[in-house]
Amino acid sequence: MAYSSSPQRLLHLLSLILLLFAFCSISESSQFCDAGFGYGESCGVSSSSSTKLLIKGGTVVNAHEMEVADVYVEDGIIVAVRPNIKVGDDVTVLEATGKFVMPGGIDPHTHLDMEFMGSGTIDDFFSGQAAALAGGTTMHIDFVIPVNGSLLSGLEAYEKKSKKSCMDYGFHMAITKWDEVVSKEMEIMVNEKGINSFKFFMAYKGSFMINDELLLQAFKKCKSLGALAMVHAENGDAVYEGQRRMIELGITGPEGHALSRPPVLEGEATARAIKLAGFVNTPLYVVHVMSIDAMEEISKARKSGLKVIGEPVVSGLVLNDSWLWDPDFITAAKYVMSPPIRAAGHGKALQAALSMGTLQLVGTDHCTFNSTQKALGIDDFQKIPNGVNGIEERMHLVWDTMVESGQISVTDYVRVTSTECARIFNIYPRKGAIRAGSDADIIILNPNSSFEISAKSHHSRSDTNVYEGWRGKGKVEVTISGGRVVWLNDELKVFPGSGKYVEMRPFSYLFNGIGKADAKYLSSLKAPVKRFRATT
């Protein structure tokens, strides 16, 4: 039957189309909610609604103390922490009796939406942060990669990438070349853009690596700005030679990656960076400490009074390199990262160093690539994109590995997963504390509940997980970000654009006493010596 083209008929047809479109949109939104990913008000979460919360009866844990108390939150800020807080009916009450109420985790080391090794990390600022929130991390600090060496262009690119953020974040800045323009841009980053740390690569020859002469100049600039110098510590020249050696031996699989950059090269570069930073007298932060060799250099430096921070990452603490020898390429390749995951024994030593305070905080170096991307290096390990997951798993794995085993206390757990990071990057006590006036970034952890890690259930976009099958105790049951409950009953309710950029001021506590040390050094020189010229 022919359909009439009368205006009434056309209007009716248009109404049906609009109704069908609306139904599809609602259905799609519901699917996101059912999957645990909420987008704004479609999942009952409003970006503009103010939230009043009372967390009742839990054990409140900070880095140096714990007490049974209630926590009252209003408009994203912790208002009060004390026992028996009374509230009205307009306040949402979360029962936490028998559970730990802690500051949300802060991950100091991530790479979201980063172009690297001919590919790009699979997690962007929404999926990566959503995964973090599901695991109890409420803030991270990501590394801005310059564009053609330009810091300003790099920051502009990352500002666009981060518009979809669903939790708070900050930025470090990588330095991939050195000249006067970069030096001036560093001043802008610190004085105007809220960035107080700069990362230098001693590895990746031919791309990111800078030599010792430039490293010295950069360290001096960091010191003058009150910014923290960070290093990826591997001897890039020796790694390059090691890679050539492996290829000549016909070792082209993932195991070649670990064999080409052994612990001694990490230890050497760590020692060199420490000595150069000591020569300049500026604090140093060594990222992703993966070996006994590097850890021992940090320990020696700290005992001598140098201001050196050592950051292990969770993969280095709990995994070993045996997976790199797996006969299945995809299985082996997912463990490729730099510096490499080390042989059994290194992880236990790093755990001990963390428990003794030789290493200060735990990051992830979350830098995810899927199986297809990893397969770019199926014939040559040098082409396998480097990186593993961890942003969602860190809080659970540190609890299970370090607290459940008795290696660290509950208060130490808060210190190494949140508070120390906030102190180092000068955002404490806004972050990293459960106290009046702090941001309401809070987790409720049940020490008697269990967890299991799987790529089928994680929130990262990666199709693999290097911690696949891990079962343990101590589960984050509630995550509160900016005063909003975003993780509850294993459901994630987040929406893009709700995260805030956190500016980080220069001259953290690590710079205390630097001026006095410089003055002491100058007074010790007993120079220049005044000499008399002999007369004839």
Automatic annotation (TrEMBL):
N6-carboxylysine, modified sites: 199
Family annotation (NCBIfam families): D-hydantoinase
Entry superkingdom: Eukaryota
Metal-binding keyword on record: yes
Family statement: Belongs to the metallo-dependent hydrolases superfamily. Hydantoinase/dihydropyrimidinase family.
GO biological process: pyrimidine nucleobase catabolic process
Domain Amidohydrolase-related: 100-486
Top-level EC class: hydrolase
GO MF: dihydropyrimidinase activity; metal ion binding
Alphabetically ordered keywords of this record: Hydrolase, Metal-binding, Zinc
Quaternary state and interactors: Homotetramer.
Protein name per Swiss-Prot or TrEMBL: dihydropyrimidinase
Organism classification: Eukaryota, Viridiplantae, Streptophyta, Embryophyta, Tracheophyta
Gene Ontology CC: cytosol
Pfam families in UniProt: Amidohydro_1
Catalyzed reactions per annotation: 5,6-dihydrouracil + H2O = 3-(carbamoylamino)propanoate + H(+)
Cited InterPro entries: Amidohydro-rel, Hydantoinase/dihydroPyrase, Metal-dep_hydrolase_composite, Metal_Hydrolase, Metallo-dep_Hydrolases_sf
Needed cofactors: Zn(2+)
Coiled-coil regions, chain positions: none
Post-translational modification note: Carbamylation allows a single lysine to coordinate two divalent metal cations.
Keyword Membrane: no
